[in-house]
Amino acid sequence: MPNKDKYGQGDKPDEKKPLRKPKVKVRANPRDKGNEGHRDVAKKVRKGFKEKVEKVLKENKGGGHERQLDAAEKAVEKEAAKVDGGAIRKVKVKIEGDIEGPDGRPLGVEKVIEAEPNG
């Protein structure tokens, strides 16, 4: 189905479509894998980042998938600034989902965000 205006001319702007069924995966690499304290911090960081990103995706649903992903990237950077750099080397967040394409079929969307904590 062509994307035309009501007079059959030109393209209509695409509607802002949010991510459907977004999945968030978080990896937090501890500085010292042998240190139990660093592994515990990494586990807490993974849980915290996942909850924060899911919350941001849900809050920005009305603005479309691009706005959701931009807001998630800002949230990851903000959270990374709070993390202890002595215990965590790097945090990697992967967001996957799909949006409805112009022909009604789902289009896959993926974004990977990497952040290094301060310290």
SS strand fraction: 25-35%
Overall mean pLDDT score? 86
Derived structural class: alpha+beta
Q: What is the straight-line distance between the termini?
A: 53 Å
Model description:
By secondary structure, the chain is of the alpha+beta class. The chain is about 35% helix and about 30% strand. Strands 1-2-3 form a 3-stranded antiparallel β-sheet, covered by helices on one side. Strand 2 (about 90-100) and strand 3 form a beta hairpin. Helix 1 runs antiparallel to helix 2. The termini are far apart. The model is unreliable at about 1-15 (pLDDT under 50).
Which descriptors would you attach to this protein?
alpha+beta; three-stranded antiparallel beta sheet; 119 residues
Write a compact overview of the structure shown.
By secondary structure, the protein is an alpha+beta fold. The chain has two helices and three strands.
SSE inventory with pairings:
Layout lengths: L19 E11 L5 H24 L5 H18 L5 E13 L5 E10 L4
Antiparallel strand pairs: 1-2, 2-3
